[in-house]
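During the reporting period, our protein records have gained a C-alpha cell line. A sample record is set out beneath this paragraph:
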Amino acid sequence: MYIEIPGDLGVTEEQARLDLAVGLYSSRTVGLARAGRLAGRSLIDFQRILADRGISLAYDSEDLDDDIATLKRLGQL
C-alpha cells in the first residue's frame, strides 16, 4: 500500500509512519511489536514514544507469541 502525503502538511515520511503506527497500536489494530516495526523503531524506542504521548501499554496475545518466539530463538524455552 502506498500513501501520498502532501508536502504542504509539513510531515516527513518518518513522522507519518510513526503516527500511523501509534494510531494502529492505540486502536488495538496491531500489537506492540508490529507497531514498532511499522514505525521503523526498536521496541524500547517505540515504548518510550508511547509513554511520551501518554499511551499506556497493552500486552496481548500477539505480544505473548512474539515473546515466546524470541525465548525459543534464544534457547531459553
